[in-house]
Amino acid sequence: MTDSTPSNKKLHGRVAIITGGASGMGEATARHFAAHGAKTIVIADVQDEKGQTVALSIGSNICTYVRCDVTDEEQVKTLVDTTVKAHGRLDIMFSNAGMGRATHTCEQSVLDVDLSAYDKVMAVNARGMVACVKHAAKAMVEGRVRGSIVCTASVAATMGGDKFVDYVMSKHAVLGLVRSASLQLGAYGIRVNCVSPGAVGTPLLKDMFGVEDEEAEKVYESSAVLKGGVMAPRNVFDVVVFLASEDSEFVTGHNFVVDSGFSLKVGQ
Question: How far apart are CA 170 and CA 95, in angstroms?
């Protein structure tokens, strides 16, 4: 079980799905959801051993692991349908599954972009995100649930990049999806927001930068305007809990940037 026990159970009784929940931000958020009283947390990922270990450590009475490749819409639909069938409803979808890059031999500048690698990144980060939002929203509409959908975007969603053009494009797509979905789903009382982390110590970011833990801290700290520490996953999952809970009941279509002020350097 999780060690954290907040006094305010912001997610008491809620049923949540977290894609990409076997490691990194998804794992950290799953533990935080449990600490905030979520009734059921379904972790969806393709990392079976890690996902099963995380679910067991949180508690089998609260958390289950389901294998789901978000690039396959039928798997996403089955994930949502089985969750609703087993637990009666879906209150929260944290669409978090993503990838940084599909190749380590090319940094994906416009002049040398590998389109097969581009297709793989877009399939997860953009197409997979659409599938998760679509089927979560359908379940919430059909179940008359005033739910919350939270997507993981990035500071890259609002700026250009000197490399990783496929990743940058995919995160721009997430922001467009959130803005459109929030406009269309507001009539059903469903909120759709995204969280845009800056450089934070997750496996995805370490892989993109090609650095280990100690080097990563230097990279992250150097990117920050707000000094006094290194941003950690908890700084992001606190925002996800806020967006998933009734604390944000009138917040929708919002891109919540958590980046220690990095985006101020380049402008939004």
Answer: 14
Supply the DSSP symbol for 124: I
For each of the domains in the chain, give its residue range(s) and CATH number, in order of start. 15-199+231-261 (3.40.50.720)
- Let me know: does 34 contact 244? Beta carbons within 8 Å: no
Question: What's the whole-number average pLDDT of the chain?
Answer: 88
If one compares 211 and 50, the residue with the highest pLDDT of the two is 50
pLDDT digits (tens, 9 = 90+) for 110-134: 998 999 999 999 999 999 999 999 9
Alpha-carbon dihedral sign for residues 141, 9, 245, 18: negative
| Statement: residue 79 has pLDDT above 90 | yes
Instruction: Output the DSSP codes for 15-47.
Output: EEEEETTTSHHHHHHHHHHHHTT-SEEEEEES-
Enzyme catalytic residues: 167
The pLDDT score that the predictor gives to residue 230 is 67
Least confident among 29-38, 69-78, 255-264: 255-264
- Would residue 79 be called left, alpha or beta, if left means φ above 0 and alpha means ψ between -120 and 50 degrees? alpha
Q: In degrees rounded to 5, what are phi and psi of residue 185? A: -100, -5
Q: Of 265, 258, 47, 266, whose CA–CA distance to 153 is shortest?
A: 258
Residue 184 — φ and ψ, nearest 5°?
Answer: -80, -30
Task: Of 26, 254, 237, 235, give the one whose Cα is nearest residue 158.
Answer: 254
pLDDT at 2: 45
Secondary structure tally for the chain: helices H, strands E? 10, 7
Asked whether the predicted pLDDT for residue 231 surpasses 90, the reply is no
Measured at the CA of 40, the angle between CA 70 and CA 245, to 5 degrees, comes to 85
